Queue: 4 jobs
Job 1
Amino acid sequence: MSFQGNAALREEEPFLHLHVALGRSDLTVIGGHLREAIVHPTLEVWLPHGAGRRPPDKGPGDRP
């Protein structure tokens, strides 16, 4: 399992934007955006301190 992305506040609520790569028992891999997950038994995540606020995107092409 591998994931990368960012964490911020959206309308004062935590918001995660994560891309994942997950290994299956048949040794194939599936990947994409992680929208929801159940973790068992544990998950360790390290989030460095930083400014986690970002204004909403106005639409396609809004970000460089």
Job 2
Amino acid sequence: MPNSPLISIIIPTYNRRSLIGETLDSILAQIYQNWECIVVDDGSTDGTEELVKAYCDKDHRFQYHQRPSTHLPGGNGSRNYGFEISNGEYINWFDSDDIMCDDKLQLQMTSLETTNYNYSVCQTLVFEGNVDNILGLRHEHITSEKPLLDFIKGDMSFFTPSPLFKKRFC
């Protein structure tokens, strides 16, 4: 995939040392390899910084940033900063307790590269504690003609990590 588009995975975090390692491992396991992962820390005090920096040392595709004071505190301020510094043609919002199946990016990129769509939404498994304790499947099949409009109106929902967007669409 030498000419494959870059995907920016943007993860806001705050005191997630106990969870974010599994999240980053799932990103490392992706079949689709042309990605950057931007972790924006909102002021963690639990060792999250050291853990994420260890991933940065092992793989240049990981980046660690502190949310600058010019951006509002919280997840949205961190996401906005990550978006501003991202280099990808595509954006995948992710949270520091999410896990990707190893073919997530590949399947969504195939969908986007073979259509004129601006985004692709995938299914989401909900689990508690670990991936063996599955609580259910979110949005088994989207049948809406205008899913983004239905999402904005509150007529349908999907979780933060599900969509992969063309950056110019965001």
Job 3
Amino acid sequence: MSVNIPLFILGHPRSGTTALAQLLNTVPEVACLYQEGNLLYRLWQTLQRIDVLNEPVCDLLMDFSVTARHNLVNRVPKKDARKLLFPQDAIEQLEQTYRHGLQTSHDPQEIYAQVSTAFFTLFARNAKARIVGDKVPDFILIPEHITAPHPDSRVIFIARDPRAVVHSTLRFNKQCLHLFAAPSAFAMAVSFCLKQKGLNRFFADFAGDRLLCLDQEELRTSPQAVARKAAAFLSTPVPPGKTSGIPAPETKNRQTEMAPKDKQAVTAVACAFGVLDAKRKTPGKWREKAEGMHELSCCPAQSIPQCVRQAATFFRESAAEKNELGHTLVQLADYSHKRADFHRASSLFRQAVAVIPQDPVAWYKYGTLCYDMKQYDKALFCAEQSGKHCPNTAYYGFLQAKNHYLAGMTERLMGSTQKAERAFRAALKTKPDFSLPLKMLDILQSQKANPL
């Protein structure tokens, strides 16, 4: 094996990826970011935007720099966990690599590969580790893209029962708003299955000796055994007693806590999508809904309106059922957006906001898609609609700030500097510690002081 080996820890949200990263950090030759660095995933998403290389270089660098400095340097490590920090000079080298790529390359994928290679090289050098790992739940959306620049990379995947994942996600989302989640077991089951089917396709093509699949239940009950298995996969020894202090991931008992209707919904979806054995018995109403959503997930983009109308016949006219349909459409649309399938995502978002026109998350996500597609008038409209329907509560506070920031970035690219400034200030008023609008105001002030 080569000196610097990138490792990607993949798993659905709430599957134990953080616990595994902490566990691997006890192995001397391995270093993992146990909190989401989010730098590479966010960079890949940014570089998929239509005509992205014509955006101001200073804006692109600002987003990258804030993400790197906030997630790789400034975070305080959790108790009893080794958090490997990037020093300032390493961040500066990453920024220089990105700047050079933006100034010299016309290929976004080439720029991504250059930065990703620099990221793992600097990480290994700083951590003095042979194997360096990153883990972001959304990596499961684009596994083929994050591994492409690294032919020697390794992947560890943590599997977990879809019902347990959905149950944990629903509990998580009740505590505070998380944009990846929806308050619907059916919608989150569809999200799980879309990602799992994509992962299965990736695993079929990924070299077998570069992939290790683990089970979350084993990680919970036998962390030492998992550590030995992972270390053997990475060809590195585990010192005796090193893993004894690592806590197992916290889990909830879905068998006793999960509502029966939620278990039925998840089982039906997983069977319809081929993630669970289709022979399992599920109630007819859930089976029809699940099969309708599976057909929608596979249909050509031009057939989406027709497939949505057909799927909608399996949902009653009540507000709860409409919300369930709308939230599911948002999950389908968001998956396509994050896979850079913009045309499909646009069609699905249009259907979603027609079903749940007062849902602020649906409008915000639709707005980010329009921004990525350079449909600026639509992006502003979506941000306005999301803000209009955001309850004035702490739970939705960050979403409101993100709406202002989206509007500010859109106005900025439309050339409306004063409107952009007002939007960024509104974002800071809503959430004073929001770094991105603060840095954009610095850029605008600097450009005023030093006009071209």
Job 4
Amino acid sequence: MRGRAALRIRAGGFSDAAAIAALIRRAFAVYEGKLQPPAGASSETAETIGAKLLQERALVADGGEEIVACLFFQQAREAGGVYVGRVAVAPEHQGRGLAARLMAELERLVRSEGAVALTLHARIALPANRALFEKLGFRAVGEGTHGGFDRPTFTIMRKEL
């Protein structure tokens, strides 16, 4: 990536599935062995991403030669809500504001479609992720527990649009 101007945020599609899967695996590799339950991101493939794209939409940050960041989103259970997941930034591009740029584009897009709020889940074991989302305007509204666990494993976060 030559600079901020060279970055293009666009919709991710089926032709991007392999690149998105590789990006997600690289971005989440740092968490291997540190999360219980383990992140499902480490097993993403072109096929699993393709299946995900049948039910969800994606935004990607494209540096021209490669996809360097992504997120997935879908209508949430509550009216006007959008659930955000699989926010990933390539390790060598972290700390450059790409997650914030993706979220800003997502907000613009879903607001134009009538959405009133974004929700996401941040792992309790990853306080830096929660801090990032708080910086982007999300607030904790509850906790949730992955199946098979007897204590909360993630924070439910929400941002009003």
